[in-house]
Structures are given as C-alpha cells and as structure tokens.
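re: that chain from earlier
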Amino acid sequence: MNRLVTAGLLGAMAIATRNRLFTAGLLGAIAIALGAFGAHGLKERFALLPEAVGWWETATFYLLTHAVAIGAIAGRSALPSLLWAMGSVTFAGTLYAMALGAPRWFGAITPIGGLWLIAGWVVLAWTSRKES
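^ sequence. v structure.
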C-alpha cells in the first residue's frame, strides 16, 4: 500500500476512535449527571412512585457500564460500540422516562434496547474470535 493510502486509512481510524471516545465520554457524563439528579433531585418523586428508584438506578448502571465499554474498545470494531450506544440510549432512556412519569407502555420499548446491548456483546465476542 502506498503511503498516501496508508495515511488516509490511519487518519480515518483515528477519527473513528475519537468519535467513539467522544460518545463514551458523553454517555458517561450523562449517566453520572442523571445518577446524581436521581439521588438528590428526585426524592419527592421517588416517594410517590417507589418502583421509579429501581428504574432510575438500573438505567444509570447500564448507561454508565456501556459508556465505559464503548471507551474500552474505541480502537476496535465499530459495530459493538454502535449497538451499545443505541441500546444504552433506548434502554436507559425508556427507564428514565417511566421514572419521570411516562406511560408504562414505554416499558415495552425497553427490551429493544436490551437486545441491542446483548447484540453488541455477541458481536464483540464473535469478532474477537475471528481476529485470533
């Protein structure tokens, strides 16, 4: 491969890695901010709807966990990161929404996000197996 093509590919990979790290940082910051908001700003809301505490904590845990996972594999395959980002936003977003009073039917959307999260892990395992 000539140097120009190699430099172009390396530049594209660096941009993709930066984008994934940006996504990881953004999702991580959002998870921390929403976790703190839930712990300190929603006490009255959670007193009225006790199951909302569990929804909020689960959403925060999954959002933060997958933000870290996206950052950890930023230089590798893009597909797991994409699936985790979509899954995290869908899964956590619907749980946050229900905790804030959205209709319970939002809970029917939550498993779609969960499937994307699982798919990201399966793709990571499969692509890692093929790389070795």
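The helical segments are 3-41, 43-48, 51-72, 78-99, 110-131.
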